[in-house]
């Protein structure tokens, strides 16, 4: 394993132009393209491709095309979870999705970070990443964006179009930009 991949996995600054990381992203893109080209009745083929792509796909879970990710192997999805159309999971750090999770269409789980105050490092394309964790029985409405380093507690519902920039506790309804807790559930 090369230096930049090690740095990425430790959450440190790394360059995504590293040949090893480029090759891994191309592999994931090829598998995503293969998955996205399947016909609606090719459920067994879809599952086979997802099992090759993802770090874990729980029993009874499924994803609707189009699906996009960076690496795939850093994504773990629990049992009986569902990702609707056009999900984007940028998995430069681990993305863990619990059991019985429902993710609406066009949701984005984004682990990548770029230097904010070090303009030269950003210009030189250094980046880092922070993991995302989604608890059991969470529901995201359509178009939810989850930012790097966020944990969403079990049994939480996030309203459509929300941008989740901070951790959310268990069993709440949150919405807005940035998402805030509206009420307990």
Care to describe what's here?
The protein is 22% helix and 30% strand. By secondary structure, it is α/β, with parallel strands linked by helices. Helix 2 packs antiparallel against helix 3. The longest helix is centred in the N-terminal third of the chain and has 18 residues.
State the total count of DSSP E strands: 20
What distance separates the N and C termini? 45 Å
Average pLDDT rating: 98
Please outline the major beta sheet.
Answer: 7 strands, mixed
Assembly form of the protein: single chain
Overall geometry comes to globular
Strand content: 25-35%
List the helices and strands in order.
Answer: HEHHEEEEEEEEEEHEEEEEEEEE
Unreliable spans: none
What is the overall number of helices?
4
Helicity range of the residues? 10-25%
Radius of gyration: 16 Å
> How does the helix and strand content classify structurally?
alpha/beta
- Going across the major beta sheet, what is the strand order? 3-6-9-14-17-19-20
Q: TL;DR?
A:
The protein is an alpha/beta fold. The chain is 22% helix and 30% strand.
